[in-house]
Amino acid sequence: MNSWLHPALFFFAGSLLLPFFQGKARKAILLLIPILAIIAVALAEQGIYGQYRFLNVNGVFGRVDKLSLIFAWVFTIMAFLGALYALHVKESGHHIAGFLYVGSSLGAIFAGDYFTLFIFWEIMAFSSVFLVWYQRTRKSLDAGFRYLLVHVFGGLLFFTGMMLYYGKTGSFAFNSIAPAGAGIAEYLILCGFALNAAVLPLHAWLPDAYPEATVEGAVFLCAFTTKTAVYVLARGFSGFEVLAIMGTAMTVFGVCYAVIENDIRRVLAYHIISQVGYMVAGIGIGTHLAVNGAAAHAFAHILYKALLFMGAGAVLYMTGTAKLTRLGGLYKTMPLTMIFYIVGAVSIAGFPLFSGFVSKSMIVSAAHQEGRLWLMNFLNLAGIGTFLSVGLKVTYFAFFGKGEPVQAKEPPANMLWAMGITSLLCFIIGVYPDVLYVLLPFATEYRPYNLPHLSEALQLLSFTGLVFFLLLSKLGPEEKINLDVDYFYRKGTALFLKFDEKVIGVGDTLWGELYRTLGLSALFKSAEASYGFDRKVIDGIVDGSATSTVGLGSVVRKLQTGRIQTYIGLSLMIFFLVVLFAVI
Amino acid sequence: MKLADMIGTLRDNLKILKMAMIVYLAVLVVIDFFLSREHAHYLIDKIYAYWAVFGTVGCFLLIKFSKGVAHLFLAKDEDYYD
After folding, report:
1. Within an 8 Å CB–CB cutoff, is residue B23 touching chain A?
2. Under a CB-based contact definition with an 8 Å cutoff, are residues A71 and A36 in contact?
3. Which of A44, A111, A171, A343 could form a disulfide with A116 if both were Cys (CB 3.0 to 4.6 A apart)?
4. Strand-pair partners of A481
């Protein structure tokens, strides 16, 4: 081990500290931990750190290079903004879940082998689900369980692939895989990663769970899970043609749903699929410009998508609803929130001077350069849909619109500050793209600001605006939900329960009857015999050991306080002890 | 509330706003005719105002398609899963 300090350590340490502090001290910790982590990322030098050997596996905790560093930068910055936005939240469990989630995401992007990656991958799933559950509604509870089940399934795909890969190569090393040599093992790993990146048709968990999360939790959720997946795809699977096609399909699919959804957070959730689609497509195209574009877009996307979720969350927090049908006229009562939301909206739409323009155009240009004109046209079609739904539809129906304005106030100061700083970052990246480009994995000569480009972007966006106002009457939000592939497992489980009740249940009762009449009498006889043996012989032995068990039980009972934060903390401590022993 | 007042004024003068937008769109298209096509590789790079037409038609189709599919079978009442 040498001088590198893993940024995730700050978050794990912070999550252990949090339960012991209240009020101002806790707020200080919440802000200080991400700042320390940002400093750790800034000081990190490239190299391989934290190698360990455990169960005959050669593990690497810290592969620090340009690709992992750019994600670490944006993750830690986002952690600070998210913590600032969530500063008013009282439950320390919520903050702990957030920190564990960020920490495990950082663990995942620095992991140099599948084994280490898998461990952090699972901690991510299990800590993030609490950000859904803390909403404390029946819907969020159900959605959280579905989220967890889907991610366990994804984890199993990854795990199976990883084991087959080990069988094939004798190593867990996580490196770039050539598309030509990829077999079932590699494709299983790819599917596990793709599920977290919400690649079709493994995407339904995202719009199912994120809109049910807490106002503050959704800001964290939209940043880390999908972008960790983008990182691992970029690391392992760049140049896979299937990703280029599926990514482009995702971009269009996401905006189609965004056009018809009513709840702002559902619109934004579908937009994550669309935007991650750009990154997946970039990775699939696989040239240096395209992969650079994917990384740059992940960076820009985390900031503006968080900003949009902050704005939508602020509306939900202050008005009690995020449904467009029940909103309108908020420009009068929440003007600052509106401005920040619009900055997020023009950033995601790719307006010149804002962050989306300098990152998204890299991927579109890469498709153009490679002569993939179909991909390029579909990516631009998705760009139209992005501006149409997030930029125009939501802004118009929530902040303007006809009818009586909804009564509301601006959100608390910490929320406004978080939105303000994020807006500023989106603007800075848009105006000085070099602050982002120096972080990219490959050296780049790319210049987003040239005349043909500006003309292309402005024509697309402006004429989208024209059609929006022409078709405004057709675009009104409706109090409906839209089916997605989660239909199959949501209705499917109901069908299974019915099958269980009607078919298996009947068989079970029959079997039970048979057992009672035939089996029981014989059983009684033998039971009598063994009872006698039990009382005379066994009891003596058992009594002795029972006393000691009772003693141990009371120790365990003290640990089992029923508080979630204690459980998370405890399991993490055990995890660290295991790792510690492994390293030593 | 200064910003709210400004927006209110704009809403009261929608006609002027509309005219300004139409002029802006026209200017965008006109500018495209003067841009150099030297570095154009593909046909779509050479067509004038390609992205303006693409934006208009694309946006129209996107709205029609999405709303159409929603009304056809995707949209359900909010308590559908309950």
Report:
1. no
2. no
3. A111
4. B76
